[in-house]
Amino acid sequence: MKKLLSILLLIPSLAYAQDSNYTVSSYFEEGFKAPNTNHLGEAWLNFLVEADDEFTYNITQATFAANSTLNWHKHSSAQVLIVVEGEGYYQERGKEPILMKTGDVIKCPKDTEHWHTASVDSAVTYIAIYSSDPTIWTEPLTREYYNSVAERLKDN
Fold it and tell me: CATH number for the domain including 94?
């Protein structure tokens, strides 16, 4: 885990060192506040690496304020989440929700409906790695369902 995080942190530095045609991002930046299109509450997105012809994956840092929700969705490729700070919830359709914490790495299989966001009492920041294909939003995650997950996981 520490090696993977070190590699991810090195990517901007390596790009900087190569030549003057580089793009540098910093995961220390908060990013921009996301419009409330597919979530409730507050969220910020920082696009660290955007997919192109040479590297077909996006690497995005997402931060959700405590008690925020994210709708059910899926991706046409596998998605990897690396939790860098805080606690949140993760669930795949048909499976029990889990509490995700700093240091957790979660791999979601392609075409698997899921959601992930902050817990009731904690913000969460994670790095998401996923293909350049658009996210497929399937249905809203209701506040009632989110609250029921929070209640089930509160002692974890």
Answer: 2.60.120.10
Helix residue ranges, H only, the chain: 2-18, 143-153
Pairing label, strands 136-139, 114-118? unpaired
Place of tokens 């910020």: 44
Half-sphere exposure of 139 (CA within 13 A, CB side): 6
> What gap in Å lies between CA 95 and CA 149, rounded to an integer?
12
Q: Which domain holds residue 79?
A: 29-153
Whole-model pTM?
Answer: 0.80
Nearest one of 48, 22, 16 to 129, comparing CA atoms: 48
How many angstroms separate the CA atoms of 125 and 83, rounded? 6
Predicted confidence (pLDDT) per residue in 1-22, tens digit: 454 444 444 444 444 434 445 4
Is 83 a domain residue?
Answer: yes
5 assigned to some structural domain: no
Residues 6 or more apart whose CB falls under 8 angstroms from that of 47 comprise: 25, 31, 58, 59, 60
The domain total for the chain is 1
